[in-house]
Amino acid sequence: MVDSSLFFKAKNKRLADLVDITSPTAFRRGIEKAKVDGISTSEFKALNLGKTRAKLQLRRDNLSSKERKQFETISKIKIPKITS
After folding, report:
1. Considering only Cβ atoms within 10 Å of each terminal Cβ, which end of the chain, N or C, has fewer?
2. Cα gap 78→47, rounded to integer Å
3. How far apart are the C-alpha atoms of 73 and 83, rounded to whole Å?
């Protein structure tokens, strides 16, 4: 049986550094870094995966109110369209 999960190790270090869901400002900073040269398909997918992971974290029962608020904010952030 294959165990499929959205929480796996990063395969690309640059994309892993780009997507940071520890805080909403870190996530926005990653979006801004991606927008400098234009958002590629792989960057869009990585940012979308980070947003999805934040949504899944909201299902956990043992989150503090601060963490819950941060993940809610991240899940509402709009990701720009692919430009390059």
Report:
1. N
2. 10
3. 24
| Residue 26: both structure tokens together | 């870190």
Q: How many CB atoms lie within 10 A of CB 15?
A: 19
Q: How much is the pTM?
A: 0.89
* Placement of tokens 């949504």 in the chain: 55
Local structure of residue 69 (DSSP, 8 states): H
pLDDT at residue 1, as a whole number: 55
**CA atoms lying within 13 Å on the CB side of residue 13:** 0
Buried b / exposed e across 41-65, counting CB within 10 Å, b at 16+? Answer: eebbebbebbbebbeebeeeeeeee
CB 63 within 8 A of CB 71: yes
